Amino acid sequence: MVFGYCRVSTEQQNLERQLDLLRKYTCDEILTEKMTGTKSDRPVLNLLKEKIREGDIIIIESLTRLGRSTKDLIELVEYFNSKGVNLISLKEHLDSTTATGKAMIGMLSVMAQFERDLIAERTREGLKSARARGRVGGRPKKDEKAINKAIKLYDSQEYSIKEIVDMTSISQATLYRRIKERKI
After folding, report:
1. Is 129 a catalytic residue?
2. Which segment of the chain is annotated as a signal peptide (predicted)?
3. pTM
4. Of the residues 9, 40, 62, 69, which is catalytic?
């Protein structure tokens, strides 16, 4: 059987470009997934791994659709090889049935991880630079006055948690966390 596998990282992203490419090939089944490639435990990928049999072919748009980390890509390629399943990556023109294809998949996996590491490094440097200029980032802190008001309302035992949340605009989680912190 010939399987196609498409993946995007978020629900908002569109699979159509990948699907258009895979439809040009005689895929018996195309599996789609909307989940980050940094997670190795992906439901549709796991389903694909259960379905494959010796002699099957998996076609992907690019190696980045299969996984983002070198380790995961190498493990997946080795898993497919151990099952006698061939992998074809359209963007990189790779076919794991050839010696050259096997070598190139390994090298490109390393390059994909290198690119990801560079992005992470630049992000860390940007955050450090922003902090040096006084920018903090992250989720804004809750208004302490609103939290104190919510705790007083809670202590009065006149209002339900829902009513307190509605009156103060703080979340239930924040209220419960502060109540718990107070007890400690």
Report:
1. no
2. none
3. 0.57
4. 9
